Structures are given as C-alpha cells and as structure tokens.
User: Which sequence fits this backbone?
C-alpha cells in the first residue's frame, strides 16, 4: 500500500503545479481527483498572531503594461482594484494565504487595494500584515463593531457562523470610503489562482452584486417549512427566479448598494428571523432573500466552493467540473487545520503553496 500513498502524493503535487500555473488555467481537473477521504474531527486553530509566526511573502511588482497605481493618491485612485477580506484570529492564517495568492497571480499586484475588516483587537495586527507583506502599500484596516449586528444574529447550525465578523460584508458600503464605488468581497478560506483583475472587470449590468449562481441546487432547503408555508414570507420570491449563490465571493456595486439601502433590507430580514425562525444557516439566507434572482451571473470558475465539506463533518470534496480560477474551502473543514493534523484531503495540497505560516512546513 505504500506505493499507492507515494503515487497519490506525487499526483497531487503535479496537479497543483498544473492548476496554479497561469498558462494552464483552462485545465479541467475535476475528473482527475475522486476522493472519499473522511474528515470528521475539528482541530484547535493556531492562536499566535506574533510577527514571527509568518514568513515574509515572495516579491511581487507590477508589470510594465500596468497603469499607475497612484500610491500617493490613496484609496480613491480610479486605477485600483478593491478587495475586502476579514481578519479574524481563528482564520488569520487563511486570510494571509488568500492575500498571498492574489498578489502572486496578479499582473498588477501593486494596483490592488486591500480593505481588511476586523471586529476584535489582535495585537499589532497592522504591523503583522505589513511585516508579512512589506511591499504592500495599498491596505487599510477597518474596525467593525460587533454591537452593530450582535442583537440581530440568530443561532445557526455551526457556532462559527454566528460570529459578528461574518456579517461585516453587509456593511461594506458604510465602512469603506464613499469614493470606493466597487469592491470584491472574499472569504478567508480561499485562494485565487488567476488574475484578480479578470473578476474585477465582470460586468454587472443593472444588478448590484455579481456571483456564481447554482440554479441546480435545492433552493428550498435554505429556509424553514414555516417560511415556505407563509405567504408573508415566500411571496418575496414572486416573479423572481431565485438561485443559490455563495456569499464568500461577490463583486459589489457599492454605489447602487448605498442608493437602494440594501443594508437596511438585510437587517429587516434578520429582525424577522429573530421572531419567526425562517432559516437556519447564518448570514447567507438574508442575502438570498434580498438578492436571489437579481444577481449578475459570474463564471463558476471564480468559486470552486464546498472544499471544506459540509457544516458538520467537513468531509473531503471533489472539484466541480470546468476550469478553476478560485478554490474555496467553505464548510467546516479548513485546509490549514487538516494539514497540521496530518489528515489532509487531496485538494488541501493546492492551498499549501500560499501558506506563509512558519511552523507549517
């Protein structure tokens, strides 16, 4: 059996090189990996946020054809690509890997502005980020007060989904500067293996948000029987063709969001949830209630989600068919925990090259 294990490791490494090479991004690897490797246990996250915990990122610089990023003009420069991502002590390692992946695959990495959202004090957080990415000039840290949303949060199927920072995406239009008209929101448990500018340039048409949609998914399961039996609630989808979409990867038109006051609409559904219990799954259902059926569709390559398994066991998953630009470990299983536990899923090896945590190798 040892030769099988060795072959599996070699094959995973070869596949990682294919997937992560910008020149081979049209490769479709779904048929190449089929796994049933179980992952049932969760492991305690790393809590150390000391500077020495992370290695310095590889060098990056803009290509000659990049337009000036205008570092001196700050966040309002029109040539910037804006990316918002959360920083949480339990997911800090994932966030840093996500940023590293974006910088490594971008033709114009110095033209990406990172908006980091935090809801708790992590000692020396900004200096930690700057020491890990010493050449990253375009960044800002925004404090999201937990009390903004705490009273609106209902219990969920997994405690991690109840954290206030999960709801910070609802308030991006308020947190970010008014001059920021568009932003890409990304979860902390993903890596980008393509140039982020391609996602940035996605056309939204008349829509406020864009995301990969999955219309084959059973949409009814995201709400309770009480919701579907009550016309006060299910009528919200009348004359709409709602499809499931994952809120961990979204392109958001902040100008439209502010104009139509979508934060208030989301909060209204959260208030109803506190009284009527119309869903079970954290911050996703309010987004579905407000936007499902009104989403600008984005290619599925930009959210190969579900790699963390389900919300209970975190079992290993396969890739969806088709090309890959972004790998997303949504679900309860996180690649850094599984790698440290020596019980990784095959696809976790695709996350590992972007991990900057010092004691992980």
Assistant:
């Amino acid at each position: 059996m040892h030769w099988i294990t060795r072959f599996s490791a070699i094959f995973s490494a070869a596949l990682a090189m294919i997937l992560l090479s910008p020149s081979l991004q049209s490769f479709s690897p779904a048929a190449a990996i089929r796994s049933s490797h179980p992952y049932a246990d969760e492991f305690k996250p790393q809590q150390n946020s000391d500077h020495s915990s992370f290695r310095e990122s590889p060098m990056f610089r803009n290509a000659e054809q990049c337009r000036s990023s205008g570092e001196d003009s700050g966040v309002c420069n029109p040539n910037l690509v804006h990316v918002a991502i959360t920083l949480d002590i339990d997911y800090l390692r994932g966030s840093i890997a996500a940023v590293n992946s974006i910088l490594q695959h971008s033709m114009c990495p110095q033209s990406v502005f990172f908006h980091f959202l935090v809801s708790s004090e992590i000692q020396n957080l900004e200096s930690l980020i700057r020491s890990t990415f010493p050449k990253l000039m375009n960044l800002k840290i925004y404090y999201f007060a937990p009390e903004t949303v705490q009273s609106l949060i209902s219990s969920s199927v997994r405690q991690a989904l109840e954290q206030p920072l999960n709801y910070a995406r609802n308030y991006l239009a308020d947190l970010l500067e008014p001059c920021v008209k568009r932003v890409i929101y990304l979860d902390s448990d993903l890596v980008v293996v393509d140039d982020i500018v391609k996602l940035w340039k996605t056309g939204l048409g008349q829509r406020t948000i864009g995301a990969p949609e999955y219309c084959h998914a059973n949409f009814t399961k995201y709400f309770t029987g009480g919701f579907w039996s009550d016309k006060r609630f299910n009528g919200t989808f009348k004359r709409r063709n709602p499809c499931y979409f994952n809120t961990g990867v979204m392109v958001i038109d902040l100008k439209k969001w502010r104009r139509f006051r979508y934060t208030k609409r989301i909060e209204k559904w959260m208030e109803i949830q506190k009284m009527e219990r119309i869903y079970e799954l954290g911050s996703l259902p309010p987004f579905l209630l407000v936007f499902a059926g009104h989403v600008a569709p984005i290619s599925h390559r930009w959210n190969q989600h579900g790699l963390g398994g389900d919300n209970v066991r975190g079992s290993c998953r396969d890739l969806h068919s088709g090309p890959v630009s972004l790998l997303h470990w949504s679900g309860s299983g996180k690649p850094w925990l599984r790698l440290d536990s020596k019980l990784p899923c095959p696809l976790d090896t695709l996350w590992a090259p972007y991990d900057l945590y010092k004691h992980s190798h």
